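Pipeline run #58 for the internal structure catalog. This entry was flagged by the ingest filter as a single-chain record with no existing model, so it goes straight to prediction. Upstream metadata was stripped on purpose; only the residue string is passed forward. Reviewer on rotation: M.T. Logging verbosity set to normal.
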Amino acid sequence: MHRRRRTALSVSAALLVAAPFLAACGNEAHPGAAAVVGGGRIDVAALQEQVKDVRQAQQSSPQAAQLVGSTGQLGRAKLYDLIVDRIVQRAADDAGASASRKEIQTAKADAVRQAGGEEQLAAMYLQQRGIAPDQIDNAIRRDVLVGKLAAAIGATNTPAGQKKVNEAFIAASKALRINVNPRYGTWDDEKMQLGDYKAPWITQVTKEAAAPEGV
C-alpha cells in the first residue's frame, strides 16, 4: 500500500506538458460544457475554477516562476483529470468496488507521514501532479479507488494485471460515451487520451495498484 502511494507522488511534473489552455467556449449540443461524461457535464466554469486554484497555489510557492512556467498548458491537464475521475468511478462501480472514508483518511495520513508533513505533501502534489491543496483529498480518493478496483477484479502486479485494469478503464470509458468540446480536443477510449495528452501518472498508479495487499 505504501509503495503504491510513493509511486503516485514520485511521478515527474511532465504530466503537465499538454495542449494549450483554451478559454471558455461551449459547443452547439452542450453550450458551456468542456465535456459531457456519462450524460453529466463538466462545465467550462468548473474547469477554470480548478485551473485557478492551481495557479493561486503556484503563485504562493517559493518556486512560483518554475511551477507556472512548466504548466502553461494546465487547462487540458485538469480536464483530463476530471474525465479520469469519472472513468475510475464508473469502473469501480461496475466491479462493485468502493473506497470508505476511513480508507481515504488512512491513505492521506500515510502520505503525510511519507512526505514529512502536510505542507510537504501539498508541495509534492502541486509540483508533481499539478494538484492544488484543496484538490488533494479527491486525488487520494481516486488512487485508493484504483487499488480497490484492482483487488476487486483480481488484477495482480504483473503485465497481465496491468492489462486487466486498463481493460476495465477502457470499458468504463466507452460506456460513458465521452464527448469533449472540440476546442479541447477529442477523447480516445482505447488510449485513455485527450487529444495528444495522456498523464504518465495514471499508468504508474494503476501498475502499482494492481499489487495485492501485503505484496
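catalog note: DSSP finds nine helices and five strands in the chain.
catalog note: The chain has one domain: 2-209.
status: ready for reviewer M.T.
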